[in-house]
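Issue 218. Parser rejects a valid record. Input:
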Amino acid sequence: MHSVFPMLLCVCLFAGCRPAAPEEIPLPTKICVKTSHHGQPIPAAAVYVKFDADSFPGYENPPSYFDAVFLTGDDAKGCIAPVPEGKHWLIAFGYDSLHYPHVVYGSLFADISLPGRAVLDTILYVSEKH
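Output the parser choked on:
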């Protein structure tokens, strides 16, 4: 009986010293875009993301309709990570000082999955209103 107590004490101490398991496992998923208009980079474009969208969300929805937003940098490139697996729509709005009308916008569909494409790095073409 006395030999069981030290062994049980060691097991309890060992179990109590382990770090807590993470609450979430981070996904290795990411979407990166470079906004472009007539072959020119469009920096500072706002890219709105609607997660798990089966259909195109349109350009008229308010920012609160979307699940996330990120801006492209001076190089016109921007990323969001991690993103959930699923079918997502990206809607971009930017400003092109070289062409009139100056406000440009565009969209991109992204299907992200761990067994398929976990990282998307592409060009998001924007255009003026026709």
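Fixed in the parser; the record now loads. The two ends are 86 Å apart (CA to CA).
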